[in-house]
Amino acid sequence: MEPTTNDIPEKLFYKAAEVCQITDTQPYVLRFWESEFPQLASEKNRSGQRVYRREDIDLVLRIKKLLYQEEYTIAGARKAIDDDRATIVEPLPSKSRSRRAAAVAEPAEPAAPPPLFGESRPEAPGPSASTVAEEEANYRLLYEEALSAVDVLKADLARSVERTRRVAARLEAALET
């Protein structure tokens, strides 16, 4: 049973152990998935512990669903996540070679090079209004997350400065005696 959004506490960062508990995975599985899925990249905090964001937890849950429920292979799940079309791509059982061969996608056409020195090229249709609105909402969300991360860092810095002042005062008092 996957956790609902209500089951996941609202935090800026989650430790690896918390992610494992929320997603019901083992730490070694999480580390392996980090090596197999470049989209899942943990950061490290000041003490060197791996920390994850809410998006990373959502990605772990999606990987888990693709691998265990929909029976994708690692490569198939990676491709599905890369393409962001997990519901369109047919699941690939790990033991079925014929289905695996049938699911190999044709390579995408390379993008046209940019025009040189005023050379004109026919323009491709622009993004739809809904795509632009989604991107704007995503950027706005990232901006708000960055602002709250800055606030957390400011609070950490203020605590560190205050702690340093207290230690300096104690040292000064100790030197005077």
Describe the structure.
- There is one protein chain.
- The longest helix is centred in the C-terminal third of the chain and has 48 residues.
- It is extended, with a radius of gyration of 24 Å.
- The protein folds into two domains: 105 residues, Multidrug-efflux Transporter Regulator, Chain: A, Domain 2 (Orthogonal Bundle); 50 residues.
- Helix content is 55%, strand content 4%.
- By secondary structure, the chain is mainly alpha-helical.
Low-confidence stretches: 85-107
Radius of gyration: 24 Å
Quickly count the helices.
6
Along the chain, the helix and strand elements come as EHHEEHHHH
Largest sheet entry: 3 strands, antiparallel
For the biggest β-sheet, the strand order reads 1-3-2
**Envelope shape:** extended
Head-to-tail CA distance between termini: 64 Å
CATH topology-level name of the largest domain? Multidrug-efflux Transporter Regulator, Chain: A, Domain 2
How many independent structural domains?
2
Return the structural class.
mainly alpha
Give the CATH class of the largest domain: Mainly Alpha
Q: Residue share in helices?
A: 55-70%
Named at the architecture level, the CATH assignment of the largest domain is Orthogonal Bundle
Question: In percent, how much strand structure appears in the residues?
Answer: under 5%
Give the overall pLDDT as a whole number.
78
